[in-house]
Amino acid sequence: MIIKNGYILCNGIQKKDICIEGNTITDIGKNLRGSDTIDASKFLVMPGLVNTHTHLAMTLFRGYADDMPLQEWLRDYIWPKEMKLTPQDCYYGNLLGIIEMIKSGTTCFSDMYLREDQAVKAVKESGMRAVELI
Q1: Which of 9, 44, 93, 99 is the 20 to 30 A CA-CA neighbour of 2?
Q2: What are the extents of the domains in the chain?
Q3: What is the CATH number of domain 2-45?
Q4: Do residues 125 and 117 make contact, with C-beta atoms less than 8 angstroms apart?
């Protein structure tokens, strides 16, 4: 596969092609040829992002009880809700977070949260790369 004429983010920004064979970048240059091509002439091509600190299942709590001091938010709102989370809740919260990361260019993350088994299950099903901290 050839990604043609992309703005490559690598030691500055350069307009080049990228050749990919399987899962490996085999060449970066100009005027590369291949049977499958993607026109990236209007796009920035860059390495995947890595998120090193997530509590991914908490994606479900986004927007819940915002704009208050951290300890009050945790004690009065989050901890009571966390006590009611089921394994299935954690699984779907992880999947939602993974989908959002993929859409934003994140290709690997490190997670630390409840029900690590559900995070691992979601990661395996999604193909995302991850480090689960227990």
Answers
A1: 99
A2: 2-45, 49-132
A3: 2.30.40.10
A4: no
